[in-house]
Design a protein that fits this description.
InterPro entries: DUF6894. This is DUF6894 domain-containing protein. Residues 2-70 form the DUF6894 domain. The structure is a single chain. This protein has 75 residues and is α+β, with helices and mostly antiparallel strands. The protein has one domain (2-69). The chain has one helix at 25-42, and strands at residues 2-8, 13-14, 20-21, 54-59, 64-69. Strands 1, 2, 3, 4 and 5 form a 5-stranded antiparallel β-sheet that branches. A hairpin with a 4-residue loop joins strand 4 and strand 5 (64-69). The radius of gyration is 12 Å and the shape is globular.
Length: 75
């Protein structure tokens, strides 16, 4: 199935217009967690710049399948 990974907050949205083919929702969620980890790493490990943002996984039809908050990681 094809999933799209949109970054959303109360003021705006960064749409994923490419998407990714995944076997199931579990694989999509794993890809999303990896992407969030990369975002945190790019910001020096700080989640502060992404406070209030979430990553929404949607199917090709646009239905919301899963949401991950981009909050600072707890150690």
């Amino acid at each position: 199935m094809r999933c799209f990974f949109h970054l959303v907050n109360g003021r705006g949205t960064i749409l994923d217009d490419t998407g990714l083919d995944v076997i199931d929702l579990e694989m999509a969620a794993a890809q999303a967690r990896n992407a969030i980890g990369e975002l945190r790493h790019a910001n020096g490990g700080s989640g502060e710049d992404w406070s209030g943002w979430r990553l929404e996984i949607v199917c090709a039809e646009g239905s919301l399948l899963y949401v991950l908050e981009l909050e600072p990681a707890l150690h």
